[in-house]
Structures are given as structure tokens and as C-alpha cells.
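Task card 7
Instruction: Convert sequence to C-alpha cells.
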Amino acid sequence: MPTVPYSKIKKELHEDPDFLREYNSLADEFQIAEALIRARTAAGLTQKEVAERMGTTQSAVARMESGRSVSLKSLKKYARSTHSRITLKIE
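Output:
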């Protein structure tokens, strides 16, 4: 069975109105996930190292980085652990 390139799958999915509506509804979660991952990688840390600094588990950090619901308290711990800071903007 030949492998289908991700770019082709992505293009097809983005042509589906139902998929696109759901995808766009998750934009905020994607932004949070991306910001967390960027902070961690900029600090040169693994999920396990961030978890140790936060006093939690690697799986908890993975859940945070997936964009699932995360508390402000946890975001603050994550930011401190990656030598980052949080800025909030409501438009």
C-alpha cells in the first residue's frame, strides 16, 4: 500500500466544510499548544524535564501541550519551568 503524503491529506481535509468548521473552532487550543511547545523547545527541555521542574508527570505536560483545558496556575508553573512569561490578550 503506497503512503499518502500529509500535504495531500491536509489539503483534502481543509476542503471539507465540516472538518474546517471544527478545526477553526479549536484555534485557541492550537495556539496554546504551539506556545507551550515553543517555550519548551526554546529552553532546550524535554517534557520530562519540564514535568520535573513543575512537580508533575510527563504525561501531564503532554496533555497541556495537546491544547486540552489547562489552568492558569499550571500555565504559570510551565512558564516558570521554561524561563518564560505569560502574556494574555483578549480581542
